[in-house]
Amino acid sequence: xxxxxxxxxxxxxxxxxxxxxxxxxxxxxxxxxxxxxxxxxxxxxxxxxxxxxxxxxxxxxxxxxxxxxxxxxxxxxxxxxxxxxxxxxxxxxxxxxxxxxxxxxxxxxxxxxxxxxxxxxxxxxxxxxxxxxxxxxxxxxxxxxxxxxxxxxxxxxxxxxxxxxxxxxxxxxxxxxxxxxxxxxxxxxxxxxxxxxxxxxxxxxxxxxxxxxxxxxxxxxxxxxxxxxxxxxxxxxxxxxxxxxxxxxxxxxxxxxxxxxxxxxxxxxxxxxxxxxxxxxxxxxxxxxxxxxxxxxxxxxxxxxxxxxxxxxxxxxxxxxxxxxxxxxxxxxxxxxxxxxxxxxxxxxxxxxxxxxxxxxxxxxxxxxxxxxxxxxxxxxxxxxxxxxxxxxxxxxx
Length: 398
Hints:
18 strands, alpha/beta
């Protein structure tokens, strides 16, 4: 299979250099989106066959044979169809004729250097990549949008989580002289506007809040105002270290309460996918308030008994923190093991207190023994006049 992939803009009368004109003139099978077909139809040779690129893509590729000329938006290697060809047909020969992608074009219109711009695609994709860019305090973010992730929706998300120090530049119908529009505005103004599609945007600015390393417990909204119920900052950071989060992908936080462990993990390791569980319904509002207070978007939380929660469709964790177990530690760990990856880690903190009748450390030891888990040496810590805390850790045996 041979593919010629030609990048075009939204210009109603595209310019093709002589080499590309020759490719089109000699072509027989053409493909692209419906919008591309409308633009290039006058340039196709008589008797040309056109294959629409629509979902499911497998059905589209079944129609391809011999040699196909594909029209794609901008640079076909920039989140584009050339990548799809390479993934689905790795042995195919691909010849590219790119043009500027939409974010390059917007930067050109703004006379804005873009070598330092971080690119995020929200076209048919969820929020994590954009959230990570915000948490990492990226100063210039180029965003590819879709009809759900609109400039207004993006601006609202930024404001909801306190990332207000940005200016938004939006380009609509880039390359179409009759429709192209470039707008620069505040995030508040963007929330109130409707934008024509297709569009893309660049946000430029900064978050004046420092990216904290160890959030003081007194800064969180607390459950019934009980500061002693929250995991103290030094213990929290040592717990994240025990979870080996730099090398992990998915964290489950079971018994999140105020959300302190989930939020700290999200801020320190923005690449993480975080699923948080809590049985007390009043903690839902705490998670919402605290995640917004500290600028930690993207934490997925579940209210209800973990033992009754459907986890079948959740991403499998390679790190699990058990912050509360209600005396059902073995049952919780048994359920966790049905999803834990082969290299996964389970961590919990045990408080040694004369007021606590059940020794959580002993419960952990018993559960590890019965479930065939390998334990790491416990880390024992005493902070000021607080009761001693032990950080307990285990993993599957190999």
